[in-house]
Structures
1.
Amino acid sequence: MESTYFKRFRMEVDLVRERRWFGAQLPSGFEFVPWNEALLDVHARTKFSAFRAEIDAIVFPCLGRLEGCRRLMREIRRKPGFLPEATWLVARRQAARGQPATRFSPLEWCGTIQGVIDRAGLGSIQNVGILPGARGLGLGSSLIAEALAGFAAAGVRRATLEVTAENTAAIRLYHRLGFRRTKTLYKSVDQVRREQQRQEAAVDRLPLGVPSSEAAKVRDSLAASDRQEMRGVVATLVSALVSGMVVAEEPTDMADSEAAVNEPAAVPAGRGPLAVSRTS
Protein backbone atom coordinates (compact mmCIF):
# COMPACT_ATOMS: atom_id res chain seq x y z
CA MET A 1 0.00 0.00 0.00
CA GLU A 2 1.36 3.42 -0.97
CA SER A 3 2.10 5.97 1.71
CA THR A 4 1.91 9.75 1.42
CA TYR A 5 5.14 11.64 2.12
CA PHE A 6 5.59 15.31 2.90
CA LYS A 7 8.86 17.16 2.51
CA ARG A 8 9.94 19.28 5.45
CA PHE A 9 12.89 21.54 6.11
CA ARG A 10 14.86 21.84 9.31
CA MET A 11 16.05 25.43 9.73
CA GLU A 12 18.51 26.95 12.19
CA VAL A 13 19.54 30.42 13.35
CA ASP A 14 22.71 31.57 15.13
CA LEU A 15 21.47 33.66 18.06
CA VAL A 16 24.90 35.17 18.69
CA ARG A 17 25.93 36.23 15.19
CA GLU A 18 22.51 36.73 13.61
CA ARG A 19 20.38 39.45 15.24
CA ARG A 20 17.79 40.26 12.59
CA TRP A 21 15.10 38.79 14.84
CA PHE A 22 15.96 41.17 17.68
CA GLY A 23 13.47 43.87 18.65
CA ALA A 24 10.37 42.70 16.77
CA GLN A 25 7.29 44.55 17.99
CA LEU A 26 3.65 43.49 18.22
CA PRO A 27 1.16 45.61 16.29
CA SER A 28 -0.96 48.03 18.28
CA GLY A 29 -3.74 46.42 20.30
CA PHE A 30 -1.97 43.09 20.83
CA GLU A 31 -0.05 41.87 23.86
CA PHE A 32 2.19 38.97 24.86
CA VAL A 33 0.92 36.65 27.59
CA PRO A 34 3.77 34.74 29.31
CA TRP A 35 3.68 31.07 30.21
CA ASN A 36 1.44 30.16 33.11
CA GLU A 37 0.51 26.63 34.18
CA ALA A 38 -3.15 27.65 34.18
CA LEU A 39 -2.89 28.50 30.47
CA LEU A 40 -1.80 25.07 29.21
CA ASP A 41 -5.26 24.34 27.85
CA VAL A 42 -5.43 27.80 26.26
CA HIS A 43 -2.25 26.97 24.35
CA ALA A 44 -3.81 23.67 23.25
CA ARG A 45 -7.04 25.33 22.07
CA THR A 46 -5.19 28.09 20.27
CA LYS A 47 -2.98 25.50 18.60
CA PHE A 48 -6.07 23.53 17.54
CA SER A 49 -7.75 26.63 16.05
CA ALA A 50 -4.57 27.51 14.15
CA PHE A 51 -3.80 24.09 12.67
CA ARG A 52 -7.00 22.07 12.39
CA ALA A 53 -7.79 23.07 8.76
CA GLU A 54 -4.18 23.21 7.52
CA ILE A 55 -1.83 20.81 5.77
CA ASP A 56 0.11 20.41 9.04
CA ALA A 57 -2.89 18.58 10.51
CA ILE A 58 -2.51 16.01 7.72
CA VAL A 59 1.20 15.55 8.34
CA PHE A 60 0.62 15.45 12.12
CA PRO A 61 -2.97 14.22 12.71
CA CYS A 62 -2.89 15.19 16.41
CA LEU A 63 -3.03 18.83 15.33
CA GLY A 64 -6.44 18.25 13.76
CA ARG A 65 -8.01 17.15 17.07
CA LEU A 66 -8.51 19.22 20.20
CA GLU A 67 -7.63 16.31 22.45
CA GLY A 68 -4.57 15.64 20.31
CA CYS A 69 -3.41 19.23 20.85
CA ARG A 70 -3.98 18.83 24.58
CA ARG A 71 -1.84 15.70 24.64
CA LEU A 72 0.84 17.47 22.63
CA MET A 73 0.90 20.43 25.01
CA ARG A 74 1.18 18.12 28.04
CA GLU A 75 4.03 16.28 26.34
CA ILE A 76 5.84 19.54 25.55
CA ARG A 77 5.35 20.77 29.12
CA ARG A 78 6.83 17.57 30.53
CA LYS A 79 10.01 17.73 28.46
CA PRO A 80 13.08 18.27 30.70
CA GLY A 81 14.17 21.25 28.60
CA PHE A 82 10.82 23.03 28.49
CA LEU A 83 11.55 26.78 28.63
CA PRO A 84 8.76 29.07 29.89
CA GLU A 85 10.69 32.14 28.67
CA ALA A 86 10.36 30.83 25.09
CA THR A 87 6.67 29.91 25.44
CA TRP A 88 4.10 32.63 24.77
CA LEU A 89 0.58 33.46 23.75
CA VAL A 90 -0.37 36.60 21.87
CA ALA A 91 -3.80 38.12 22.45
CA ARG A 92 -5.85 41.25 22.03
CA ARG A 93 -8.48 42.77 24.28
CA GLN A 94 -12.08 42.49 23.18
CA ALA A 95 -13.79 45.85 23.53
CA ALA A 96 -17.53 46.27 23.84
CA ARG A 97 -19.15 47.99 20.88
CA GLY A 98 -18.50 51.69 21.07
CA GLN A 99 -16.25 51.31 24.12
CA PRO A 100 -12.44 51.26 24.35
CA ALA A 101 -10.72 48.11 25.55
CA THR A 102 -9.38 48.14 29.11
CA ARG A 103 -7.13 45.86 31.13
CA PHE A 104 -10.31 44.12 32.36
CA SER A 105 -11.63 43.40 28.86
CA PRO A 106 -11.73 39.71 27.85
CA LEU A 107 -8.76 38.34 25.94
CA GLU A 108 -9.06 36.99 22.42
CA TRP A 109 -6.30 34.41 21.89
CA CYS A 110 -4.60 34.87 18.53
CA GLY A 111 -1.35 32.89 18.52
CA THR A 112 0.86 30.45 20.41
CA ILE A 113 4.50 29.35 20.47
CA GLN A 114 6.43 26.89 22.65
CA GLY A 115 10.16 26.47 23.17
CA VAL A 116 12.29 23.59 24.46
CA ILE A 117 16.06 23.26 24.94
CA ASP A 118 16.92 19.88 23.43
CA ARG A 119 19.57 17.41 24.55
CA ALA A 120 22.16 19.01 22.27
CA GLY A 121 21.60 22.39 23.94
CA LEU A 122 19.78 23.87 20.94
CA GLY A 123 16.65 25.94 21.29
CA SER A 124 13.84 24.02 19.60
CA ILE A 125 10.67 25.86 18.56
CA GLN A 126 7.94 23.23 18.89
CA ASN A 127 4.99 25.08 17.40
CA VAL A 128 4.07 28.52 16.26
CA GLY A 129 0.51 28.93 15.09
CA ILE A 130 -1.59 32.00 14.29
CA LEU A 131 -5.39 31.90 14.05
CA PRO A 132 -6.69 32.48 10.50
CA GLY A 133 -8.36 35.79 11.37
CA ALA A 134 -5.13 37.22 12.82
CA ARG A 135 -2.70 36.32 10.03
CA GLY A 136 -0.88 38.88 7.93
CA LEU A 137 -0.38 41.26 10.88
CA GLY A 138 3.18 40.30 11.83
CA LEU A 139 2.16 38.27 14.89
CA GLY A 140 4.18 35.24 13.78
CA SER A 141 7.47 37.11 13.47
CA SER A 142 6.86 38.83 16.82
CA LEU A 143 6.17 35.52 18.56
CA ILE A 144 9.28 33.93 17.06
CA ALA A 145 11.40 36.92 18.08
CA GLU A 146 10.07 36.71 21.64
CA ALA A 147 10.85 32.98 21.81
CA LEU A 148 14.35 33.52 20.41
CA ALA A 149 14.95 36.25 22.99
CA GLY A 150 13.96 33.73 25.67
CA PHE A 151 16.44 31.20 24.31
CA ALA A 152 19.21 33.82 24.15
CA ALA A 153 18.54 34.92 27.74
CA ALA A 154 18.92 31.27 28.81
CA GLY A 155 22.36 31.14 27.20
CA VAL A 156 21.30 29.18 24.10
CA ARG A 157 23.47 29.97 21.07
CA ARG A 158 21.46 28.35 18.26
CA ALA A 159 17.76 27.64 17.69
CA THR A 160 15.97 25.32 15.26
CA LEU A 161 12.52 24.61 13.88
CA GLU A 162 10.88 22.49 11.19
CA VAL A 163 8.51 23.63 8.48
CA THR A 164 6.58 21.87 5.72
CA ALA A 165 8.17 22.66 2.35
CA GLU A 166 4.84 23.78 0.85
CA ASN A 167 4.58 26.59 3.40
CA THR A 168 6.61 29.03 1.32
CA ALA A 169 5.38 32.13 3.14
CA ALA A 170 6.68 30.78 6.45
CA ILE A 171 10.01 29.83 4.88
CA ARG A 172 10.44 33.38 3.54
CA LEU A 173 9.67 34.75 7.01
CA TYR A 174 12.26 32.48 8.64
CA HIS A 175 14.85 33.61 6.12
CA ARG A 176 14.09 37.22 7.00
CA LEU A 177 14.65 36.40 10.68
CA GLY A 178 18.03 34.81 9.91
CA PHE A 179 17.12 31.11 9.75
CA ARG A 180 18.93 28.94 7.22
CA ARG A 181 17.95 25.49 5.97
CA THR A 182 20.20 22.75 7.35
CA LYS A 183 18.38 19.52 6.46
CA THR A 184 15.58 18.12 4.29
CA LEU A 185 13.29 15.52 5.88
CA TYR A 186 10.54 13.32 4.46
CA LYS A 187 7.64 12.50 6.74
CA SER A 188 5.33 9.56 6.06
CA VAL A 189 1.79 10.33 7.23
CA ASP A 190 1.19 6.66 8.08
CA GLN A 191 4.41 6.42 10.07
CA VAL A 192 3.67 9.62 12.01
CA ARG A 193 0.16 8.37 12.78
CA ARG A 194 1.46 5.04 14.10
CA GLU A 195 4.09 6.80 16.24
CA GLN A 196 1.49 9.13 17.72
CA GLN A 197 -0.82 6.23 18.50
CA ARG A 198 2.01 4.46 20.33
CA GLN A 199 2.83 7.62 22.28
CA GLU A 200 -0.81 8.13 23.28
CA ALA A 201 -1.08 4.50 24.40
CA ALA A 202 2.09 4.87 26.48
CA VAL A 203 0.69 7.94 28.21
CA ASP A 204 -2.81 6.65 28.80
CA ARG A 205 -2.27 3.06 29.91
CA LEU A 206 0.04 1.08 32.13
CA PRO A 207 2.08 -1.60 30.33
CA LEU A 208 0.53 -5.04 30.21
CA GLY A 209 1.78 -7.43 32.89
CA VAL A 210 2.44 -4.82 35.59
CA PRO A 211 1.92 -6.48 39.01
CA SER A 212 -1.07 -5.12 40.91
CA SER A 213 1.18 -3.92 43.73
CA GLU A 214 3.28 -1.90 41.30
CA ALA A 215 0.19 -0.57 39.54
CA ALA A 216 -1.12 0.67 42.90
CA LYS A 217 2.15 2.48 43.54
CA VAL A 218 1.97 4.11 40.13
CA ARG A 219 -1.63 5.20 40.71
CA ASP A 220 -0.78 6.62 44.13
CA SER A 221 2.19 8.48 42.64
CA LEU A 222 0.08 9.88 39.82
CA ALA A 223 -2.65 10.91 42.24
CA ALA A 224 -0.14 12.77 44.40
CA SER A 225 1.31 14.42 41.31
CA ASP A 226 -2.16 15.41 40.10
CA ARG A 227 -3.01 16.93 43.49
CA GLN A 228 0.20 18.95 43.48
CA GLU A 229 -0.40 20.09 39.89
CA MET A 230 -3.98 21.07 40.73
CA ARG A 231 -2.79 23.17 43.68
CA GLY A 232 -0.40 24.93 41.30
CA VAL A 233 -3.16 25.53 38.75
CA VAL A 234 -5.49 26.97 41.41
CA ALA A 235 -2.73 29.24 42.69
CA THR A 236 -1.93 30.55 39.21
CA LEU A 237 -5.62 31.04 38.40
CA VAL A 238 -6.03 33.13 41.55
CA SER A 239 -2.91 35.07 40.62
CA ALA A 240 -4.23 35.67 37.12
CA LEU A 241 -7.59 36.90 38.41
CA VAL A 242 -5.94 39.20 40.92
CA SER A 243 -3.78 40.74 38.21
CA GLY A 244 -6.86 41.48 36.13
CA MET A 245 -6.57 38.83 33.45
CA VAL A 246 -10.06 38.08 32.12
CA VAL A 247 -10.35 35.20 29.68
CA ALA A 248 -12.75 35.45 26.76
CA GLU A 249 -15.65 33.03 26.63
CA GLU A 250 -14.86 29.90 24.66
CA PRO A 251 -16.27 29.97 21.10
CA THR A 252 -18.95 27.40 20.39
CA ASP A 253 -16.84 25.72 17.70
CA MET A 254 -14.19 24.85 20.31
CA ALA A 255 -16.34 22.20 22.01
CA ASP A 256 -14.55 19.19 23.41
CA SER A 257 -16.46 16.80 21.21
CA GLU A 258 -14.27 15.74 18.32
CA ALA A 259 -17.38 14.82 16.38
CA ALA A 260 -17.85 18.55 15.73
CA VAL A 261 -14.43 18.89 14.14
CA ASN A 262 -14.34 18.75 10.36
CA GLU A 263 -11.69 16.70 8.65
CA PRO A 264 -8.58 18.88 8.05
CA ALA A 265 -8.07 19.90 4.46
CA ALA A 266 -4.86 20.66 2.63
CA VAL A 267 -4.23 24.33 1.87
CA PRO A 268 -2.48 25.99 -1.06
CA ALA A 269 1.25 26.55 -0.87
CA GLY A 270 2.23 29.54 1.23
CA ARG A 271 -0.79 29.43 3.52
CA GLY A 272 -1.31 28.31 7.06
CA PRO A 273 0.50 28.38 10.40
CA LEU A 274 4.21 28.95 10.49
CA ALA A 275 5.71 25.83 12.03
CA VAL A 276 4.70 22.45 13.32
CA SER A 277 5.36 19.97 16.09
CA ARG A 278 8.77 18.36 16.36
CA THR A 279 7.58 15.58 18.65
CA SER A 280 7.04 13.01 15.94
Note: Residues 202-219, 232-271 have pLDDT under 50 and may be disordered.
2.
Amino acid sequence: MNPKLAASRRSVRAEGWIVGTRRPDPAVRLFCLPPAGGGSSEYASWTDAFAEDIEVCPVELPGRQTRWREAPVASVDVLVEQLATAISDELDRPYALFGHSMGSLLAFELIRTLRRRGRTLPRALFVSGGQAPQMRRTQASIHDQPTEELTARLKAIGGLPDEVYLEKELLELLMPTIRADFAICETYRYREEPPLPCPIVGLAGAEDQETPPAMMEHWREQTAAGFALRVLPGGHFFLRPERDAVLGVVRSALMACL
Protein backbone atom coordinates (compact mmCIF):
# COMPACT_ATOMS: atom_id res chain seq x y z
CA MET A 1 0.00 0.00 0.00
CA ASN A 2 1.27 3.45 -0.87
CA PRO A 3 2.61 5.04 2.33
CA LYS A 4 0.76 8.26 1.52
CA LEU A 5 -2.52 6.43 2.07
CA ALA A 6 -1.49 4.05 4.81
CA ALA A 7 -2.49 4.78 8.39
CA SER A 8 0.27 5.78 10.74
CA ARG A 9 1.47 3.23 13.28
CA ARG A 10 -1.16 3.58 15.94
CA SER A 11 -2.68 1.00 18.23
CA VAL A 12 -5.09 -1.39 16.54
CA ARG A 13 -7.88 -3.04 18.48
CA ALA A 14 -11.35 -4.57 18.15
CA GLU A 15 -9.92 -7.19 15.78
CA GLY A 16 -8.47 -4.47 13.56
CA TRP A 17 -11.68 -2.43 13.25
CA ILE A 18 -10.37 0.46 15.37
CA VAL A 19 -7.07 2.24 14.74
CA GLY A 20 -6.44 4.65 17.58
CA THR A 21 -4.78 5.19 20.91
CA ARG A 22 -6.64 4.30 24.10
CA ARG A 23 -7.04 7.01 26.70
CA PRO A 24 -6.89 6.12 30.39
CA ASP A 25 -10.35 7.28 31.46
CA PRO A 26 -12.34 9.01 28.72
CA ALA A 27 -15.79 10.38 29.42
CA VAL A 28 -16.92 9.34 25.95
CA ARG A 29 -15.72 7.32 22.97
CA LEU A 30 -16.26 8.74 19.49
CA PHE A 31 -16.38 6.08 16.78
CA CYS A 32 -15.64 7.69 13.40
CA LEU A 33 -16.65 6.04 10.13
CA PRO A 34 -15.00 7.03 6.83
CA PRO A 35 -16.40 8.23 3.52
CA ALA A 36 -16.28 6.09 0.37
CA GLY A 37 -12.68 5.30 -0.53
CA GLY A 38 -11.44 6.59 2.83
CA GLY A 39 -9.91 4.96 5.87
CA SER A 40 -9.01 5.56 9.48
CA SER A 41 -6.47 8.23 8.53
CA GLU A 42 -9.40 10.54 7.74
CA TYR A 43 -9.65 11.07 11.50
CA ALA A 44 -6.01 10.56 12.51
CA SER A 45 -5.52 14.19 13.55
CA TRP A 46 -8.65 14.30 15.70
CA THR A 47 -7.16 12.53 18.72
CA ASP A 48 -4.70 15.27 19.60
CA ALA A 49 -7.30 17.95 18.89
CA PHE A 50 -9.52 16.76 21.74
CA ALA A 51 -8.79 16.78 25.46
CA GLU A 52 -8.31 13.54 27.37
CA ASP A 53 -12.04 13.19 28.05
CA ILE A 54 -12.84 12.29 24.42
CA GLU A 55 -11.34 9.12 22.97
CA VAL A 56 -11.40 9.16 19.17
CA CYS A 57 -11.86 5.68 17.66
CA PRO A 58 -11.31 5.81 13.87
CA VAL A 59 -12.94 2.79 12.26
CA GLU A 60 -10.95 0.86 9.65
CA LEU A 61 -13.09 -1.02 7.14
CA PRO A 62 -11.77 -4.07 5.26
CA GLY A 63 -9.83 -3.42 2.08
CA ARG A 64 -7.98 -0.22 3.00
CA GLN A 65 -4.98 1.16 4.86
CA THR A 66 -4.17 -1.11 7.84
CA ARG A 67 -6.52 -3.78 6.37
CA TRP A 68 -5.68 -3.39 2.68
CA ARG A 69 -4.96 -7.12 2.22
CA GLU A 70 -8.55 -8.00 3.17
CA ALA A 71 -11.38 -8.15 0.66
CA PRO A 72 -13.68 -5.12 0.80
CA VAL A 73 -17.32 -5.62 1.76
CA ALA A 74 -20.01 -4.29 -0.59
CA SER A 75 -23.06 -4.82 1.64
CA VAL A 76 -24.28 -2.45 4.36
CA ASP A 77 -25.91 -5.28 6.30
CA VAL A 78 -22.85 -7.53 6.27
CA LEU A 79 -20.51 -4.69 7.17
CA VAL A 80 -22.48 -3.35 10.14
CA GLU A 81 -23.13 -6.83 11.54
CA GLN A 82 -19.38 -7.50 11.53
CA LEU A 83 -18.61 -4.10 13.02
CA ALA A 84 -21.24 -4.42 15.74
CA THR A 85 -19.66 -7.69 16.84
CA ALA A 86 -16.12 -6.34 16.71
CA ILE A 87 -16.78 -3.29 18.91
CA SER A 88 -19.00 -5.07 21.44
CA ASP A 89 -16.32 -4.84 24.16
CA GLU A 90 -15.78 -1.12 23.43
CA LEU A 91 -19.29 -0.10 24.51
CA ASP A 92 -18.54 -0.16 28.24
CA ARG A 93 -18.74 3.63 28.58
CA PRO A 94 -20.74 6.45 26.96
CA TYR A 95 -20.11 6.71 23.24
CA ALA A 96 -21.17 8.53 20.08
CA LEU A 97 -20.85 7.87 16.35
CA PHE A 98 -19.60 10.19 13.61
CA GLY A 99 -19.83 9.38 9.92
CA HIS A 100 -19.04 11.38 6.81
CA SER A 101 -20.85 10.70 3.53
CA MET A 102 -21.00 6.87 3.25
CA GLY A 103 -19.89 6.77 6.89
CA SER A 104 -23.10 8.47 8.00
CA LEU A 105 -25.16 5.65 6.46
CA LEU A 106 -22.98 3.01 8.11
CA ALA A 107 -23.19 4.76 11.49
CA PHE A 108 -26.98 4.95 11.25
CA GLU A 109 -27.38 1.27 10.40
CA LEU A 110 -24.84 0.30 13.05
CA ILE A 111 -27.01 1.93 15.72
CA ARG A 112 -30.08 0.10 14.44
CA THR A 113 -28.14 -3.18 14.53
CA LEU A 114 -27.01 -2.54 18.11
CA ARG A 115 -30.60 -1.70 19.07
CA ARG A 116 -31.85 -5.01 17.65
CA ARG A 117 -29.17 -6.76 19.72
CA GLY A 118 -30.29 -5.01 22.90
CA ARG A 119 -27.00 -3.18 23.37
CA THR A 120 -26.42 0.21 24.97
CA LEU A 121 -27.05 2.93 22.39
CA PRO A 122 -24.95 6.03 21.70
CA ARG A 123 -25.50 9.43 23.28
CA ALA A 124 -25.46 11.08 19.86
CA LEU A 125 -25.13 10.44 16.13
CA PHE A 126 -23.20 12.91 13.96
CA VAL A 127 -24.03 12.71 10.24
CA SER A 128 -21.78 14.73 7.95
CA GLY A 129 -22.42 15.28 4.25
CA GLY A 130 -24.57 12.15 3.96
CA GLN A 131 -28.02 11.71 2.49
CA ALA A 132 -30.77 10.64 4.91
CA PRO A 133 -31.32 6.87 4.49
CA GLN A 134 -35.02 7.08 3.64
CA MET A 135 -34.40 9.40 0.68
CA ARG A 136 -34.44 7.88 -2.79
CA ARG A 137 -31.16 8.15 -4.70
CA THR A 138 -31.50 10.19 -7.90
CA GLN A 139 -28.03 9.64 -9.38
CA ALA A 140 -27.33 6.71 -11.70
CA SER A 141 -25.39 3.80 -10.21
CA ILE A 142 -21.74 3.72 -11.25
CA HIS A 143 -20.15 1.07 -9.01
CA ASP A 144 -20.13 -1.37 -11.94
CA GLN A 145 -19.18 1.16 -14.62
CA PRO A 146 -15.75 1.68 -16.25
CA THR A 147 -12.93 2.95 -14.10
CA GLU A 148 -12.87 6.25 -15.98
CA GLU A 149 -16.43 7.03 -14.90
CA LEU A 150 -15.74 6.19 -11.27
CA THR A 151 -12.58 8.27 -11.34
CA ALA A 152 -14.43 11.26 -12.79
CA ARG A 153 -17.04 11.05 -10.03
CA LEU A 154 -14.38 10.89 -7.33
CA LYS A 155 -12.58 13.90 -8.80
CA ALA A 156 -15.83 15.85 -8.91
CA ILE A 157 -16.47 15.42 -5.20
CA GLY A 158 -12.81 15.58 -4.08
CA GLY A 159 -12.80 12.03 -2.77
CA LEU A 160 -9.07 11.27 -3.07
CA PRO A 161 -5.83 13.27 -2.91
CA ASP A 162 -4.93 14.73 -6.33
CA GLU A 163 -1.68 12.78 -6.57
CA VAL A 164 -3.52 9.45 -6.49
CA TYR A 165 -5.05 10.09 -9.92
CA LEU A 166 -1.55 10.43 -11.39
CA GLU A 167 -0.48 6.99 -10.14
CA LYS A 168 -2.36 4.50 -12.32
CA GLU A 169 -1.09 1.42 -10.48
CA LEU A 170 -2.19 2.82 -7.14
CA LEU A 171 -5.59 3.76 -8.52
CA GLU A 172 -6.03 0.22 -9.86
CA LEU A 173 -5.09 -1.15 -6.45
CA LEU A 174 -7.72 1.03 -4.77
CA MET A 175 -10.46 0.44 -7.32
CA PRO A 176 -11.97 -2.76 -5.79
CA THR A 177 -12.48 -0.93 -2.48
CA ILE A 178 -13.85 2.15 -4.21
CA ARG A 179 -16.30 0.02 -6.20
CA ALA A 180 -17.40 -1.79 -3.03
CA ASP A 181 -17.99 1.52 -1.25
CA PHE A 182 -20.09 2.89 -4.10
CA ALA A 183 -22.01 -0.38 -4.16
CA ILE A 184 -22.74 0.02 -0.44
CA CYS A 185 -24.47 3.33 -1.12
CA GLU A 186 -26.09 2.42 -4.42
CA THR A 187 -27.55 -0.97 -3.46
CA TYR A 188 -28.74 0.07 0.01
CA ARG A 189 -32.45 -0.47 0.68
CA TYR A 190 -34.03 1.41 3.57
CA ARG A 191 -36.28 -0.51 5.97
CA GLU A 192 -38.80 1.22 8.23
CA GLU A 193 -37.96 1.11 11.95
CA PRO A 194 -38.79 3.43 14.86
CA PRO A 195 -36.76 6.66 15.03
CA LEU A 196 -33.53 6.53 16.99
CA PRO A 197 -33.69 7.46 20.69
CA CYS A 198 -30.52 9.56 20.48
CA PRO A 199 -30.17 13.09 19.07
CA ILE A 200 -28.80 13.54 15.57
CA VAL A 201 -26.45 16.39 14.69
CA GLY A 202 -26.08 17.08 10.98
CA LEU A 203 -23.16 18.87 9.36
CA ALA A 204 -23.30 20.15 5.78
CA GLY A 205 -21.11 22.07 3.36
CA ALA A 206 -22.73 25.26 2.12
CA GLU A 207 -21.46 24.59 -1.44
CA ASP A 208 -21.95 20.81 -1.39
CA GLN A 209 -23.61 19.78 -4.65
CA GLU A 210 -23.61 16.09 -3.70
CA THR A 211 -25.58 16.49 -0.45
CA PRO A 212 -26.75 20.10 -0.09
CA PRO A 213 -27.87 21.42 3.31
CA ALA A 214 -31.56 21.22 2.39
CA MET A 215 -31.18 17.51 1.78
CA MET A 216 -29.59 17.01 5.20
CA GLU A 217 -32.78 18.32 6.87
CA HIS A 218 -34.47 14.96 6.21
CA TRP A 219 -32.35 13.36 8.95
CA ARG A 220 -34.69 14.88 11.54
CA GLU A 221 -37.22 12.17 10.61
CA GLN A 222 -34.82 9.54 11.99
CA THR A 223 -34.68 10.70 15.62
CA ALA A 224 -37.10 11.05 18.49
CA ALA A 225 -34.56 13.01 20.54
CA GLY A 226 -33.97 16.16 18.51
CA PHE A 227 -32.11 17.22 15.39
CA ALA A 228 -29.76 20.13 14.75
CA LEU A 229 -28.03 21.11 11.51
CA ARG A 230 -24.81 23.10 11.23
CA VAL A 231 -23.82 24.48 7.82
CA LEU A 232 -20.11 25.16 7.28
CA PRO A 233 -18.19 26.65 4.35
CA GLY A 234 -17.06 24.28 1.62
CA GLY A 235 -18.12 21.48 -0.69
CA HIS A 236 -18.71 17.80 -0.10
CA PHE A 237 -15.42 17.30 1.74
CA PHE A 238 -15.70 20.41 3.94
CA LEU A 239 -14.69 18.02 6.73
CA ARG A 240 -11.02 18.54 5.87
CA PRO A 241 -10.53 22.32 5.52
CA GLU A 242 -13.13 23.03 8.23
CA ARG A 243 -11.76 20.46 10.66
CA ASP A 244 -11.54 22.83 13.64
CA ALA A 245 -15.12 24.04 13.16
CA VAL A 246 -16.33 20.43 12.85
CA LEU A 247 -14.53 19.46 16.04
CA GLY A 248 -16.07 22.41 17.82
CA VAL A 249 -19.57 21.28 16.84
CA VAL A 250 -18.81 17.73 17.97
CA ARG A 251 -17.36 18.75 21.32
CA SER A 252 -20.26 21.08 22.16
CA ALA A 253 -22.86 18.45 21.31
CA LEU A 254 -21.04 15.72 23.24
CA MET A 255 -20.76 17.85 26.35
CA ALA A 256 -24.47 18.64 26.14
CA CYS A 257 -25.55 15.00 26.06
CA LEU A 258 -23.23 13.50 28.69
Note: The CA atoms of residues 200 and 227 lie 5 Å apart.
